[in-house]
């Protein structure tokens, strides 16, 4: 049986997927996860989840974020408005800009493929 | 963990579902997150009115996207509240429906014109975003994680709201006057958004001591005034003479409390204002109208449970 492993580095962080292990049951999966995915790594907590319990949506199933123009959903669209007056608005726009950039790269690389 | 240990250890993202938190902490956090979640729902319902009034397709699309975001924020927050083990999502939604659930004062006033859009989408959302940014450092980790996603999206709301204000204040003289009138109506409500200055109530003290809140209402109102009064003035809005806003000796801004209608505020806090009944009632009727969707989902969940293996 395969168990997916999620590691949290510090308290308060997200648990991030780091890999998986073979194990006959949950207890063994926790033990193997510690050895394979937490040893020598900064770790605060580990989750193990049976692989069969994970549902996946991949690019074959869905065009993530859609393919139609939804520029009205992005802070950057309103570029006649200066976001820098409030740090939280500026930060939000920066996060959106980064998300849009990585998404554009993904779409371009799919276009190449 | 006892309450003294919680106060000692309190810090950003310090506690989570694996910690044995005292009842008092879990109740306070539930009260706060439930209020926040309810406000997202009621803000979303209020905001959807603007889709009808929006003057262009772009504005209608943006407004619809914003309403979707707000309802999504409510879902994140109800989940974060559920992790405290005090109330289920269903219980919280029932409380909102039957009028027990509390939510932000500004969402107790029904809206019926496009001029009101920037009052909510720029000033109220701007104030809310100030507050939400500080809550990324709340001590309850699932709440902080919800804030990461919420703040990611809110930048669009605030900028879009400002863009509407800018457009209106560049319109005809009549449009500018209507916007100014609407601003005067909303300004006192917006100032009350952060609660009374002098009433740092016991809830607030406790919430700060255990790290649920990191910034006082007074500090938030002060920073809001410093940022948003210049914005209002930039677009040609005049700040009404009353309620009086003044600078304190330390250079921070404050409001003369006596100029605000606290009776109305406390009536709203009890969900007993005329607008409260209207907003809660109209949401309840819409909820009832789509009960069949929820029921069919529940029916499906029941019938599908335990059959996933067989379906494979």
TrEMBL record, chain A:
Which residue intervals make up region (Disordered)?
87-113
Domain of life of the native organism: Archaea
Q: Where is the composition biased (Basic and acidic residues)?
A: 87-107
Q: Which InterPro entries match?
A: PaaB (IPR009359), PaaB_sf (IPR038693)
Give the protein name, as stated in the record.
Ring-1,2-phenylacetyl-CoA epoxidase subunit PaaB
TrEMBL record, chain B:
What's the domain of life for this entry?
A: Archaea
Q: A GO CC term?
A: cytosol
**Renumbered residue ranges of the record's region Disordered:** 1-20
Q: Where is the signal peptide?
A: none
What are the BP-aspect GO terms?
A: phenylacetate catabolic process
What is this protein called in UniProt?
A: Ring-1,2-phenylacetyl-CoA epoxidase subunit PaaA
Which source organism does the UniProt entry give?
Halobaculum gomorrense
